[in-house]
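> call design_seq(struct)
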């Protein structure tokens, strides 16, 4: 589709490393502190190591100092997994990576390669993205691919959001492919769903923040709130608590997922942690052991034990979206349907044929791939309300 477009490559927005001539550490050798560099502490959380290691006080991540002939010393953070958790405790909810395709290959090669891991679907060309000259949307919103630009030196950027991640057939095989092709993970979001809101909910998150539940490195992180907080527990549109600073490349969100989707009384609460490769190495291992990394992100998440299911999550979200779509249709068209039945002498088939349009409602789009394979998943009476 885009073979006639010339290609160069890219350097993702979040990929540029912060440089520091040196960093002052507590309990370690002192150097001149670079402006804007992370504040570091030495912690007793050893994760099996005999000696303490330097930790970024803001994110709680291990810090490595990498010598660079051109830039001096580069700070590189490493994610800290909890080995006591189960790999299936969490789900991958977003993934972005970049790589340089083999010689004489291009973004077209990458799209074809990704076709072995998920259904790519229709491709729609768009404007440039993240400093790339060109980009395209694929799979009706499953993801984006970007390429081109004189400064990009051959790299191609590929991203999957929630819809695309739910379509991945085998995360282990995808992780192996990425490693074999020297890809760099630029972003990874890991999520945990509590459908009943018993273990994870907004009140729990607020109490954890007031205490030390989110103090991963020693300093209380910043926070922000979104949604109808003034309604308190009576909120029907949903509340969100954000933990941390996205500029640091590690950010947590706790939000009332069911209410956000349109079910005003739903207790479904989600917590997700977003990591970006800003002075940080995101391992391929996170794709096969997401639960380990989510549980290790903050002290308050070490308790997570319940296994997650992508299909269960998609079905639950799809059911809420479907019920909301039906309610909206009833509100806006119900009286028209009644009138049409009277006009057409009670011929239900003719009424349906007169009103049908191809496709699904926009709110169902994120679940279209799974719904097409099993439409009954949206019927609560058939599959159960849970």
């Amino acid at each position: 589709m885009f073979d006639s477009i010339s290609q160069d490559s890219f350097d993702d927005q979040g990929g540029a490393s912060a440089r520091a001539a040196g960093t002052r550490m507590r309990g370690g050798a002192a150097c001149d502190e670079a402006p804007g560099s992370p504040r570091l502490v030495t912690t007793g959380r050893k994760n099996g190591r005999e000696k303490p290691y330097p930790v970024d006080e803001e994110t709680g991540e291990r810090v490595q100092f990498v010598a660079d002939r051109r830039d001096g010393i580069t700070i590189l953070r490493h994610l800290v997994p909890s080995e006591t958790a189960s790999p299936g405790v969490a789900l991958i909810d977003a993934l972005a990576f970049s790589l340089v395709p083999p010689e004489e290959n291009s973004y077209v090669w990458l799209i074809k390669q990704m076709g072995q891991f998920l259904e790519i679907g229709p491709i729609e060309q768009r404007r440039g993205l993240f400093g790339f000259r060109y980009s395209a949307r694929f799979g009706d919103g499953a993801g984006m691919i970007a390429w081109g630009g004189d400064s990009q030196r051959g790299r191609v950027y590929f991203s999957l959001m929630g819809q695309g991640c739910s379509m991945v057939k085998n995360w282990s095989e995808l992780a192996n492919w990425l490693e074999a092709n020297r890809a760099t993970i630029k972003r990874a979001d890991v999520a945990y769903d509590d459908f009943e809101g018993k273990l994870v909910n907004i009140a729990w998150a607020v109490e954890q923040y007031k205490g030390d539940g989110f103090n991963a490195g020693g300093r209380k992180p910043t926070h922000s709130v979104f949604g109808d907080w003034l309604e308190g527990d009576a909120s029907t549109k949903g509340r969100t608590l954000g933990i941390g600073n996205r500029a640091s490349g590690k950010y947590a969100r706790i939000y009332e997922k069911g209410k956000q989707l349109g079910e005003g009384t739903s207790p479904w609460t989600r917590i997700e942690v977003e990591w970006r490769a800003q002075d940080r190495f995101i391992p391929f291992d996170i794709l096969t052991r997401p639960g380990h990394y989510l549980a290790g992100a903050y002290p308050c998440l070490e308790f997570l034990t319940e296994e997650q299911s992508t299909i269960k999550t998609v079905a639950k979200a799809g059911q809420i979206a479907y019920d909301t779509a039906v309610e909206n249709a009833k509100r806006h068209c119900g009286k028209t349907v009644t009138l049409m039945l009277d006009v057409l002498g009670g011929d239900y088939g003719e009424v349906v044929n007169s009103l049908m349009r191809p496709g699904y409602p926009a709110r169902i789009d994120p679940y279209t791939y799974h719904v097409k394979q099993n439409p009954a998943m949206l019927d609560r009476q058939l599959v159960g309300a849970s």
